[in-house]
């Protein structure tokens, strides 16, 4: 049994990656994720791995591409503006079907924004900020423990689907320190893969590519990729329900905001309100069906985000007009407080009496 | 000396008797029709790389990274492992490969747009880190696949789709000399500029490519060979004139020779 250690989210995520067999980390400085490259620069040489401070986020994601193409577990991380730069690389990773883990410690935007925590990259993470028809699984942890657990899990999921997996963290989760039980390290002798470039010894040559000049061939390839994305929807949707059994008001929140809402639910329950929290863990694939189960039971839904309203669109898609969906958001690095959530619920309940 | 046509596929032509076979397709080059335009230099460079790979006996541990541009389909011709890369990111992809599998022989094949325009940052920093990879840089002074636009290596006054009055240095800068630019970096070990304008220079180009690969095999460090290559289609000249154009216009601007050697 591993003992509890006190770590900040960015470092817990980094150590979990090492324990998942990641030996290649390529990064670039940007706040609030700087603990990741610093930790990897210290840790990778200890485990026989490689850390490179790349010349840009673009170079870093393409170094990940190269390491993945020859069969290594590789990772990069950044924060919002840097993740925008990686979108081309993410599209190529999806097109070439290469596994990788990419962490976004989201900060305020748009543009240079600020270094405060934010959830305003939800659209980019769930819809894809790069070109072409592609999807990336996006895991949204809401504690330092989950940052470690989900990062560990992400490497397995990336290889299961031969597709990049995103960790959608934020400036709060990355910076805060909490006790965490780190996962046991796995063997780095990874299973042999039948597609990696190892030199054409005793086998025909292999090609990693996303170029299909014949339109019907590319369409076929895109159908094949869609089948893979549908498999993710069937097999790997994750979510959590808190006090949902008799909830007449449903809060929907992910990541650090879900953490705040959890406290609000406790307070509201104590005051006699039947409030529950539905927390998507995979924001893509989004748990539409699981959330839709409550559409006819609840009086209304309240989506809460540190953004101007992005996930709320998925909540509306799930609820499909059967119940009112409200939104409350703070942005620009401002954080929603428990008191604000309680006030919103009291106000909305009055309105819908 | 040549008693049988160059490029004669194996199994055809006389094996016995007075006619001697002097050319066979090297195993690392697939026996497929070319998609390149007539008079294009890419086919020659593809073949030279395949021959060097076979002569050095590294086919089973070589991995190529093909660019975005005319040569993206390198894997249709080479009979060894190849990956595509996003436009210009080729040296970063090669860096990831070589760091993860130092036993592999990793090379990139890049055009002037891929290497010297959109991929300049990746080139400079890969070279400055002294990554132990090999870059084959095909300079034909023009963007081929997209229809003949100005490249960073387009000559002063050269007419292209995007320089209809000729490249004007005061607006577009001057032709970028890549090996000279990265020569001062200590991690850069071998640099050569070669040309495909005549058989002698082609032989020199092949020897330079071999030296570059040896540099990597012997763990010496970063190597790059620039090859001045004809593009008759977008120079708007017949193939023979294109070779003359290399000699008369390109070589004075891009002097041939080894710029750096370990």
Can you give the helix content of chain A as a percent range? 40-55%
Separation of the first and last Cα atoms of chain A? 51 Å
CATH topology of the largest domain in chain A: Rossmann fold
Q: For the largest sheet of chain A, list the strands in their spatial order.
A: 3-2-4-5-7-6-13
| CATH domain class of the largest domain in chain A | Alpha Beta
- Counting H and I runs of at least 4 residues, what is the number of helices of chain B? 9
Order of helices and strands of chain B: HEEHEHHEHHEHEHHE
| Largest interface: chains, residues each | A-B, 40 and 35 residues
Taking pLDDT < 50 over at least 5 consecutive residues as the criterion, the unreliable ranges of chain B are: 1-9
What does this protein look like?
The complex is a heterodimer of chains A (353) and B (262). Chain A is of the alpha/beta class and 353 residues long. Helix content of chain A is 40%, strand content 20%. Chain A has helices at 9-19, 35-43, 57-69, 80-85, 87-95, 122-127, 144-161, 171-175, 215-235, 255-270, 288-292, 311-319, 338-351, and strands at 4-8, 24-27, 50-53, 74-78, 100-106, 137-139, 164-170, 177-181, 207-208, 239-242, 249-252, 275-280, 282-284, 300-305, 325-329. Chain B is 34% helix and 16% strand. In chain B, α1 packs across α7 (199-217). Chain B has a 7-stranded mixed sheet, with helices on both faces. By secondary structure, chain B is an alpha/beta fold. Chains A and B meet through α3, α5 and β9 of A and β1, β2, α2 and α4 of B.
């Amino acid at each position: 049994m591993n003992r509890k250690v006190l770590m900040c989210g960015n470092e817990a995520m980094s150590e979990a990656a090492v324990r998942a067999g990641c030996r290649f980390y390529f990064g670039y400085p940007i706040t609030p994720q700087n603990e990741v490259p610093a930790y990897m620069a210290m840790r990778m040489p200890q485990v026989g791995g490689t850390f490179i401070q790349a010349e840009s986020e673009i170079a870093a994601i393409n170094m990940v591409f190269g390491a993945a193409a020859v069969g290594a577990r590789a990772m990069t991380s950044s924060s919002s503006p840097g993740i925008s730069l990686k979108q081309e690389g993410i599209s190529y990773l999806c097109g070439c079907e290469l596994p990788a883990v990419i962490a976004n410690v989201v900060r305020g935007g748009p543009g240079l924004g600020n270094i405060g925590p934010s959830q305003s990259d939800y659209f980019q993470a769930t819809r894809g900020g790069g070109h072409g028809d592609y999807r990336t699984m996006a895991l949204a942890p809401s504690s330092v423990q989950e940052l470690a657990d989900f990062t560990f899990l992400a490497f397995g999921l990336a290889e299961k689907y031969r597709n990049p997996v995103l960790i959608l963290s934020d400036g709060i989760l990355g910076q805060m320190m909490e006790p965490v039980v780190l996962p046991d390290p796995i063997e780095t002798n990874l299973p042999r893969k039948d597609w990696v470039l190892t030199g054409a010894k005793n086998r025909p040559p292999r090609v990693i590519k996303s170029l299909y000049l014949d339109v019907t061939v590319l369409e076929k390839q895109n159908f094949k990729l869609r089948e893979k994305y549908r498999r993710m929807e069937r097999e790997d949707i994750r979510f959590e329900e808190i006090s949902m059994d008799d909830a007449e008001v449903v809060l929907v929140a992910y990541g650090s905001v879900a953490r705040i809402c959890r406290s609000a639910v406790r307070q509201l329950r104590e005051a006699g309100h039947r409030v529950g929290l539905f927390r998507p863990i995979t924001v893509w694939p989004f748990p539409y069906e699981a959330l839709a189960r409550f559409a006819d039971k609840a009086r209304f839904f309240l989506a809460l985000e540190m953004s101007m309203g992005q996930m709320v669109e998925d909540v509306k898609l799930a609820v499909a007009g059967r119940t009112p969906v409200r939104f409350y958001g703070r942005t620009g690095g401002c954080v929603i407080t428990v008191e604000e959530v309680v006030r919103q619920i009291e106000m909305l309940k009055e309105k819908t009496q | 000396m040549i008693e049988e046509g160059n490029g004669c596929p194996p199994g055809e032509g006389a094996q016995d008797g007075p006619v001697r076979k002097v050319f066979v397709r090297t195993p690392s080059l697939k026996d497929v029709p070319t998609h390149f335009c007539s008079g294009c230099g890419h086919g020659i460079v593809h073949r030279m790389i395949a021959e060097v790979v076979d002569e050095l006996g590294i086919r089973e541990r070589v991995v190529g990274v093909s660019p975005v541009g005319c040569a993206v389909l390198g894997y249709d011709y080479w009979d060894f492992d190849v990956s595509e890369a996003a436009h210009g990111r080729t040296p970063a992809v090669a860096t990831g490969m070589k760091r993860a599998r130092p036993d592999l022989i990793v090379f990139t094949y890049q055009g002037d747009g891929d290497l010297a325009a959109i991929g300049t940052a990746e080139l400079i920093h890969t070279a400055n880190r002294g990554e132990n990879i090999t870059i084959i840089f095909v300079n034909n002074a023009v963007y081929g696949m997209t229809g003949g636009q100005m490249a960073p290596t387009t000559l002063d006054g050269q007419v292209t789709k995007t320089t209809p009055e000729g490249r004007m240095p005061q607006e577009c800068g001057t032709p970028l000399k890549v090996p000279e630019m990265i020569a001062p970096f200590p991690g850069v070990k071998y640099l050569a500029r070669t040309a495909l304008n005549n058989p002698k220079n082609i032989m020199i180009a092949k020897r330079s490519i071999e030296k570059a690969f040896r540099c990597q095999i012997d763990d010496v460090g970063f190597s790059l060979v620039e090859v001045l290559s004809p593009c008759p289609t977008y120079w708007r000249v017949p193939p023979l004139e294109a070779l003359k154009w290399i000699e008369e216009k390109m070589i004075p601007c891009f002097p041939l020779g080894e710029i750096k050697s370990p």
